[in-house]
Design goal:
It is a single chain. This protein is an all-beta fold. It has no helices and 11 strands. The strands form 2 sheets. Strands 2, 4, 5, 6, 9, 10 and 11 form a 7-stranded mixed sheet that branches.
């Protein structure tokens, strides 16, 4: 079993920055990959960024150049550094970890970007 705990959400002004953290209950080396997703009411959860075991990152086009995903394996933590935030980035952000074919999710953290 894996527990993922997100933190760092809150209210931020457009153009601002925010860093989300996702602390895992076990070594991040045990995960095939980790990712951040986001979801707004009435919409499907969408992939924001992924990072592989080797540290290779991929981003959704909507956040490319503004968001950075990183991992600190010594702390079993994955981060999402968000900059140049826009109101359309407002969502609940979820951490995801994949162990084999099994996905694990955190409880989510709300990010609200005011215009």
């Amino acid at each position: 079993q894996v527990q993922l705990v997100e933190s760092g959400g809150g209210l931020v002004q457009a153009g601002g920055t925010r860093r989300l953290s996702c602390a895992a209950s076990r070594s991040t080396f045990s995960f095939n990959a980790m990712a951040w997703y986001r979801q707004t009411p009435g919409k499907q959860r969408e992939l924001v960024a992924t990072i592989s075991l080797r540290g290779s990152a991929n981003y959704a086009d909507s956040v490319k150049g503004r968001f950075t995903i990183s991992r600190d394996d010594a702390k079993n933590t994955v981060y999402l550094q968000m900059s140049s935030l826009k109101p359309e980035d407002t969502a609940v952000y979820y951490c995801n970890a994949q162990v084999g074919l099994t996905p694990y999710w955190g409880q989510g953290t709300q990010v609200t970007v005011s215009s």
